[in-house]
Each structure stands twice: as structure tokens, then as C-alpha cells.
Amino acid sequence: MRPPATPDEVEAWLRRHGWTPDTRRTAEADRLIDARVRDSAGQGFPLQPWDAVRSFVSRYTGVEFPAPLAPERAFVADPTLGYQGDAEDITELAAEVGRRLFPVGYEFGEAGIVLMDDLGRFFYLHHTGPYFLGQDEAQALSSLMRGDQDEVDDYCV
What is the distance between the alpha carbons of residues 114 and 108, in angstroms, rounded to a whole number? Predict the structure, then answer.
């Protein structure tokens, strides 16, 4: 993976698309997360969020963040997008990385699911397989902005 974008570059990207540091859409985030919880339970693989998931989604939901070099791809902090059977795939990836995972958004254009683990790391579940986006929110947003990702194998138990 390339070195991450600077915090200033990431913040400028976010702001260009309507985000501000004081953004909090808590009610909308709760509604989306609760819908995802119900959907995963209906699939037979219940997923449970935690406070950091709710915080992340509340700060970024409601805004699309197109990738500067590939504007047909955009990150959207909406955990409800998925595909039939995705809760099982998320559960399997959680077992591989040895941590709880929960969807925090998706990448429009590629239909990849962005996941957060309970250590604050971010992963990307794509039809070509799982990938690692970053050790923290800053690295993950940089990866989403630049279209970078790393092989997940180094982050599995």
C-alpha cells in the first residue's frame, strides 16, 4: 500500500463533498445500523455493532465521497448495502481476522463493503475477496480516497 494521504488532504476531500468535523447524524446512523442488524439476523448470521461503529457512521452518513482519480467510485457510510449471503461472508472474515466486524459503509461502483473491527481497523469485502484498508479511520479514509488496499492475509490470525 502507498503511504497514506496526509490528514489535510483527507479532510479537504471530505469537506469538498459536504462533510464538516461537527457532523453528527445520530438518528440516521442508528436507523441504518438497526436495519443492518435485522438483516444479518434474518440471514442467520447476526452482526452486532458497538459504539465506535455508531460514531463512525453518524459522522459520515448522508454524504458521498467520490474517489478523485475514479469518480465513478464513491464511499458511502451506509451499512445497509450488501448482497444476499453477505452476513455469512462477514462472519467468516471476522473469524479469519479474529475480531468482531460490522459494516460501516460501501464503495459505490464496486459494491465493496467497508467493515470496521473492534480494534478500529478497517477492511473491504469485495467480490474478488477481502482486503485491508487501514489500522485506523485516517488510514481507511485515505485508502478509500486513493483506491488503495492491501492483502488481508497479514491481518489474519
Answer: 11
Torsion angle of alpha carbons 54, 56, 62, 64, nearest 10°? Answer: -150
Q: What is the pLDDT of residues 25-58, one digit of tens each?
A: 999 999 999 999 999 999 999 999 999 999 999 9
d(CA 105, CA 56): 10
Inside any domain, residue 47: yes
Edge to edge, what strands does the sheet with 150-151 contain? 64-67, 70-76, 101-108, 112-117, 122-126, 129-134, 150-151
The answer to whether 28 and 62 are in contact (CB under 8 A) is yes
Report if residue 1 sits inside a domain: no
Domains of the chain: total: 1
Where in the sequence is the domain holding 101, given as residue range(s)? 7-155
Whether residue 28 lies inside any domain: the answer is yes
Q: Cell triple for residue 7?
A: 490528514
132 occurs within a structural domain: yes
Predicted model pTM: 0.95
